[in-house]
Amino acid sequence: MVIKDQDSTEVLEPQIDGVETVELAEGELPESLLRVRLKLGWAGFKKNWKLFSENKLGLVGLGVILLFALMAIAHPIMRSVGPWQDDNVYDPVIGFSAPVTDFEVVATEADVVDPDSQIDQVTAQLWCFGSVAGDICSINQTPAPPSADHWLGTDPLGRDIASQLTFSTRAAFLLGTIAAVVTVAVATTVGAIAAFYGGWIDNFLMRLADLVLLLPLIPILIVVSGLFTVTMPLLGVLIGILSGFGGTAIVLKSQALSVKVKPFIDAARVSGGSNMHLIFKHVIPNVLPLSFLYMMFTVTEAVSLEATLSFFGLINADMTWGIMLSTAQTQGYLRSGLEFWWLLIPAGLAVSLLAAGFFFVGRAMDEVINPRLRSR
Amino acid sequence: MLKFIAKRLVQMAFLFFLFLSLVFFLLQAQPGDITSQFLDPTIPAEVQALLLERLGLDGSIWSQWWAYVTNFFTGNLGVSFSQYPKEVIDVIAERIPRTLFLFTFATIFAYGLGFVLGKRLAWRRGGFGEASITVSGVLLYTIFYPWFAILMILLFSSSLGWFPISGFLTPEFWRGAPFTGNEVFGQLLLSFTISAAFIIGGLILASRSEERPQQRMFRRAGYIVAALAFVLFWALRTEMRPFAVDIIHHTVLPVITLTLIAFAGTMLLTRSSMLETLKEDYILTARAKGVPDKDIRDHHAARNALLPVVTSFILGLAFIIGGGVVTETVFGWPGIGSLLLQATVIEDVPLATGALGFIGILALMAHLLVDILYSVLDPRVRVQTGN
Amino acid sequence: MTDTRMDTAEGRLGDSNSHAEAPILEVNNLVMNYELKGGGMVSAVEGVNFNLPRGSSMGLVGESGCGKTSIALTLIQLAAGNARVLDGEVLLDGIDLLKLDEEEMRQRRWTDVSMVFQGAMNSWNPVYTVGEQIRETMDIHWDPKPTAAEARAKTEELFNLVGINPEMIDRYPHEFSGGMKQRAVIAMALACDPKLIIADEPTTALDVIVQEQILEELKKIQHELGMSIIYISHDIAVIAEITDLIGVMYAGKLVEQGPTAEVFKRPRHPYTWLILSSTPSITGDRRQLAPLKGEPPNLLDPPPGCRFHPRCPYATEKCMQEEPPLAEVEPGHSIACWHPESVPVTLAGSTE
């Protein structure tokens, strides 16, 4: 992305022009300003949507995101009015449910005729301590495969996977949103200030961006989450800051540079606008389309980073997709291949799909903003 | 050239200094002071005081800071809590080669494979091949990495049984072995280094010579001698060979997994960079000169398309290092990444921050190498810095 | 089509002054279209005929998009992937280049016909030295391949010829100035002693003084080595300065051709007359410049009859319906116009 920044600076014109017109009309038509803005915004949106919708992968990505949004909404509905009301069964963290199977205890392994209803005495001690041949031993089956009650089965602790999955979706969205908003806020401010003031401020901020780019993010976050108690919102802020000071700031700075030399900036300066007014009223709004693009990539990064860290057990959260995977892995269900697929597939697929969804939307937006990338 | 490297080295040292300062202030920002972090509360008080003095952590915060940073440069990283009284530096030194091994091979394979495939994709546009490779590239690029590693283990180890599930060697096989794992691994690294030296030597000789056929001869000779040296090296170590094979057997799947995940980005970038390059006027000129297609692709287009790919390595570095930590953890590979995670989980702060520091060094060194490589590849940079 | 060819055969350029030797290049009824994605066809080159006598230079002029670069790229078979040669032949030294397969053509490039491209700035691959890139052409085409010493000697000779210090051989393109790059491109074009050089806008991106020097250099080289050169330019002043013959193109067709001096003295086609009227002349009379009005036609759907009629001040009913053939108006000078008599003898805006 960063390599291409010179391209993107040239091609942002269409979006900028729209805003520019509004700024010029500001003095004359104060009443209708809002309407003009809305109209221009709607026209721009329609045009860009048409471009966006030409990208099939982008549409797929949008569909995936919407699907996950529905899942996130589904969880509280299912828990409050739907079939998942029983806290003891469907709570994603403390719920428990397991089908009980009665086994007949037999003397030795050789006596087991039907492994689905018989169990040898030694093995039986694991569940029914002190049982002897002839007893009946009831065993809770965890993890249990998908059933009518548990659509995606239960995990090794007897918790409902579907409930965990939808519950975690909310956390993923929350984290993604926080990270994206923080990134955009930091990156646009840093980029605009670096571009606008230049000189040593620019130099300092850009060297800082280089350093952040070089930092091995995962190892640092690992150590940080070991030293501090990292919650999901805090992680979102951390990822947002790191990503906002790094590559995104560099790209947005070059974009802001190209805005800075536009005539309307001079016009605003001549008419007495202060530096802060210029930055926040003129430079930043024109850099925003590009920063929304980078929001998408930040969400992708944040979703996988969070999942990785909680897979390592380093995040202080009740339940996330990473924790679900980690449970399956630490309890040793890897060695049995795909027999317990419902422990591995839903969570891993969810992380991959949501990350890919935002990535595809980002790519499609990139093509809208950056005409050079359109089908050659 | 030397001046350029020296300049970059100074910059790197400064960046590393900033990095260490960041780690230090992270430690300070923590509830409780650095001494409680850095010293195991269970060891005797007099040993604690001695250690504090030795580490220079008994003064003011600024002198502590200075001491912390200089300690790192002298390898004085304190004592591990969990492996007391082992020095952190010794624990790390044992693990660094393994991580370097994984990192180097995965990086070379990922960038090599990504570059070659991306180049071909751009050259032969359209068709099922391009579509499927591009789509799988994008999928690999976005897949949740730990999950991908788990799936690889499920497929190749649990189901197919081709590779061991995890670890660095098979303990049962090594019981009573006349060598330690590290000795054999050291010999393995030595043999790879010798081979690499021959290959690089061949490439240098090739770049020095003026005649095309001679260049090709030097390159090929380099590869052949490298292969021969490797074979000879292990032919002389009959006793050690089965143990080396065991280690290699354990390395294959982690290397493949890390390669696959890192190569997708390179491939996609090479493809788009190559497509841009093919539009350049000098490609048309080369065609008009009657340069054969393969030479246009390899000598003219790919050579230029390589430049942004090399630059992207700097951005990809953080990614591949993070991937390395995940790989080591999921595959139970006892390198510095899994050390970092274990130390963090058991709150062995000196070990964790030491490991983090070394990962930082690794990143900076790789960055430096890429910078040098870039200046070799792009005469515009080389000449500028040369003056 | 065949009718047009019969007519034009007589008016073909060069026939009158080089009977002794066959022309180095004969282009017969070349028709080339670009196929568009939607299935449309852009008629880029339409029934072009000309001959280039050995050792002479010819200029092709016209507005951008008139098909002059398309002709050049067709000659060396490097037109874009969607280009379709529908008819015609290109005989270089008697061999039809259009009939060669890709490998044969590749071997002939640079030995038979080499090219100096539009915007030489970007003709150099930035990662190799200029010497290496010149050497590459020799390695490919010389038989046997030159040794390092031979290649170097030849490159030094070429550098001296085009006026660059031979010490620059081992430098990279970015160390050359714009004019030097262009000179080096010319040197490279000469590396395999080609039978024909095509120079496509050889001086466009350069400043006027450098432009002048390069043109002088080219002229000198052409005379010294007896090269056959085709110049392509939108700048009729450049063509006037260095060519023996001129062909004026409009919308994919050749509308006027003849000895350069003659065409400049007395343009016969309204289009030529109009572009000369819109170009200042330093040596000629003072006059008001007359701008050429209108736009070149859309080649997706070219106008019927004479393609110039929408912009032609003398167009009549006939011009809108029938295509004028290229016919000789005086020996060696031919035009494609129904009303050559309408064109005034002096340029528009002349003080006379």
Question: Top keywords for this entry?
Answer:
heterotrimer, A: 376 residues, mainly alpha, MetI-like fold, three-stranded mixed sheet, 4% strand, C: 352 residues, alpha/beta, eight-stranded mixed sheet, four-stranded antiparallel sheet, globular, disordered N terminus
Question: How are the SSEs placed, and which strands pair?
Answer:
The complex is a heterotrimer of chains A (376), B (387) and C (352).
Chain A: H1 5-11, H2 13-25, H3 33-53, H4 56-80, H5 87-90, E1 100-106, E2 118-120, H6 121-124, E3 136-140, H7 161-197, H8 199-214, H9 217-227, H10 232-245, H11 247-260, H12 263-270, H13 275-311, H14 321-330, H15 341-369
Parallel strand pairs in A: 1-2
Antiparallel strand pairs in A: 1-3
Helix pairs in contact in A: 1-11, 2-3, 3-15, 4-7, 4-15, 7-8, 7-10, 7-11, 7-13, 10-13, 11-13, 12-13, 13-14, 13-15, 14-15
Chain B: H1 2-29, H2 34-38, H3 45-55, H4 61-73, H5 88-123, H6 127-142, H7 145-159, H8 171-174, H9 181-208, H10 212-235, H11 241-278, H12 281-288, H13 293-330, H14 336-345, H15 349-377, H16 379-386
Chain C: H1 2-11, E1 25-35, E2 41-52, E3 57-61, H2 68-75, E4 83-92, E5 95-96, H3 102-108, E6 113-116, H4 130-141, H5 148-162, H6 178-189, E7 196-200, H7 208-225, E8 228-233, H8 236-242, E9 245-250, E10 253-259, H9 260-265, H10 270-277, H11 317-321, E11 327-330, E12 333-335
Parallel strand pairs in C: 3-8, 3-9, 6-7, 7-8
Antiparallel strand pairs in C: 1-2, 1-4, 4-5, 9-10, 10-12, 11-12
Helix pairs in contact in C: 5-6, 6-7
